[in-house]
Structures are given as C-alpha cells and as structure tokens.
Protein: Bacterial regulatory protein, arsR family
Amino acid sequence: MGVTKTDLFTDQQNELAKIAKVFAHPARIAILEYLIQANSCINGDLVQELGLAQATISQHLRELKEIGLIKGSIEGVSVNYCIDPIRWAEVQNLFQDLFSGFPKISGCC
Amino acid sequence: MGVTKTDLFTDQQNELAKIAKVFAHPARIAILEYLIQANSCINGDLVQELGLAQATISQHLRELKEIGLIKGSIEGVSVNYCIDPIRWAEVQNLFQDLFSGFPKISGCC
DNA sequence: TTATTACATCGCAATATTACGATAAATTGG
DNA sequence: CCAATTTATCGTAATATTGCGATGTAATAA
Structure:
C-alpha cells in the first residue's frame, strides 16, 4: 500500500527515519557538501554546480530546510542558504547514538 | 521523472545516499535496534515484535542485507540475522566523515 | 511603471517504495 | 515419503519520490 505504518514505531524511530530520508538522495548530499566547503552560504547557483533544473534544486533545498538542517535568509533578490550548526549537531548525535549502541567488540557473526 | 540522475554525482555521494535510504524507514531502524540489544542474533520473530507481515519483514531484511549491514546464517529451518560489525563501522565512518566536515564553530547563520 | 532577476510552487509523467497475500523452496519431524 | 514450519520471492495495489516546464511572487533596476 505504499504508506509507512508509523504508528507501529516509536517517535524516535520515525524521526530518525525521516531525517535519513533527507540524506537519501545524492543531490541533497552534494548540496550539504557544497555548503560545508563554501562556508559562506550560497543560493541557487547550485543549479550551475549540480546540473539539475532550478525547480528541482529548490525542491531539494526545501526538504533540507523542512528538517531544519539548513536555513535561508533573503539577501536582496536572492536567498542565502547555510547549515544550521545547532540542528547539524543534533542530527549528528541522533546517528551517533544509533551507531554507538552497537558494541564494536561483539563475537556474534 | 522519478529516476535519480546518479551520473551527476560522485560515487561517494551516491553510495552514502544509498545507505541513507536503507535507514530511511522506521521498520529498518527498529530491526537494527532490536539486533543491537538482542546481541544474540534473531530471525523473523521480528514479525511478532514489529507487527508487520512476514513478507514485509523479509523485504526489509533483504534491504539491510543488500548493503551489508546485516548477515543471515541458516540455523535449521530458520535464519539467524545479525549485524556485521565491520560494515557497521564502515557505515558509521561514512556518516561521521560527512558530519565532521562541518566545523562546529562557524559564524555563518 | 516595466523589465529583469532569483526563487518558490504547481502540476504532471516516470519511476520507486511499501505492504501484503499467495506461493515457492528448504528443512525438520514423523 | 508426507506434513509442518520458516523464510524468500512474486505479483499487485496504494502511495511516495524525482525531475522539470510553466507559472507565480518578490525585490531590484531603469
């Protein structure tokens, strides 16, 4: 039926899955990487950089914005996007918590 | 058109996105968390635990297996699944690399 | 005001994902 | 051998995602 049964899972599980979904597209990874290196935040010249249509980039930016990973501020006729350091650290910790839950020394497999 | 233009991105970006996609469903998060705490690996009594149909769980397990995050070994009539520690650490590092690329002290936003 | 620039949103077509019943395959117990 | 058990796979319906052209909106420039 194509619809995830979120009611079967905890809020944390749903939240982490939702965040992971935003990372689950190479264009959004590329946007984040670009924002990391161009610390001075940029706008839709990601269109030039990535080779996707303007509408498509805008859509990816919105998804990144919706989970709070980036912020946009109007700068004249254009919009400056940048990573939100607070949220970035939060998301990092969510993944970290999952990964560190598994003890490296484990003779299971 | 619903098809990701992977040729526009680097192998690393595509790889990380593909891995993130596996984390992008609460059932798969739940399976991983269950495997973490039930260090002794288990099989499809995840059906009982999660409340999804057997076929659905099997499908999720396959996706986790396809990126190497878990391994299954035949144990009589059933299959024991467990986390692959090597791959787990690899994936952890991939995310870690992305997250640590952004300096926490950054007066951008 | 009008034109230009930059971005967001709408609407659609192509494709992917999710969930599950039905069925197949493989193993154990008799 | 046959039945029972467990898991995998197939097929399909419902829904979600991806990409983009077209259009809307807002700000600046002339």
Remarks:
- Chain B touches chain A through 51 residues (CB under 8 Å).
